[in-house]
Amino acid sequence: MDLIFFGMQGSGKGTLGKAVADRYGMKIFETGSELRKLSHEESELGQKVKSIVEAGNLVPNEVVMEIVENFMDSLDHDAPILFDGIPRKATQAKSLNEVLDKHNREYKAVLLELSEETALKRLTTRRICKSCKAVYPAAYSEENCECGAALVTRSDDNPEAIKTRLKNFQEETIPAIELYKDKLIIIDGEPSIEDVREDTFEVLDKIMPK
User: Fold this and answer.
1) SS3 call for 168
2) Per the count of CB atoms within 10 A, which of 5, 43, 125, 178 is most buried?
């Protein structure tokens, strides 16, 4: 069973996704990391990605789907995948579903539901590790990450920039999520990450092999 993770910025989607992937032995597909990895390869797809990125262009959707299929081909057939940060729009959701259906993959979507008020509060108070990019909430009082590097506030974690990102989520990603209404698992993202994690495990334990 593959999982497609959705959640507005500040929902803790990335952190929860890693915990879910660890629990169920899943491989995480994250578009940005796959682009970076492929751009250093000598393969035909790698060189295609490299030329697009170096030209400063956005990677078109059809190439993203090539990357998804390349990722699938690199795994054992029955290895479950967690998709993080994809799809971002309804058109991309349709393309991803076509790829998953073509490969006879079973999949569910998981939405971490959060209010914009909570998202804004979390994003304006969180800090990021300069080295490993781990995210720490306001409640974390230390000045350094557990890896030893300094914690900083992201330059785009200001109210105006955040509101723009949240608006994009509502206008672009919500229509994508609606395409999964028959496969959608909704998790309350308002509690602490520890409580959200336990609530998520309680739901997913019923459908995911451990």
Assistant:
1) helix
2) 5
Domain limits for position 146: 2-26+80-204
Number of H helices, E strands in the chain: 9, 8
| The pair of three-digit structure tokens given for residue 132, joined into one six-digit string | 């490993």
- The H-assigned helical ranges of 12-158 are 13-24, 31-38, 44-54, 61-73, 90-102, 116-125
Residues 6+ apart with CB under 8 A from 42: none
Q: Is the dihedral of CA 24, 25, 28, 33 positive or negative?
A: positive
Which tens digit of pLDDT belongs to each residue from 138-174? 778 899 999 999 999 888 788 888 899 899 999 999 9
Task: Tally the domains of the chain.
Answer: 1
Helix axis angle, 61-73 relative to 90-102, nearest 10°?
A: 30
Beta strand 2-7 with 81-84 is parallel
Which residue is listed with tokens 């495990």? 201
Q: What are 52-63's pLDDT values in tens digits? A: 988 888 889 999
Helix axes 193-204, 13-24, angle to 10 degrees: 40
Amino acid letter for position 75: L
Q: How far apart are CA 138 and CA 152, in angstroms?
A: 12
Q: Does residue 99 lie within any of the structural domains?
A: yes
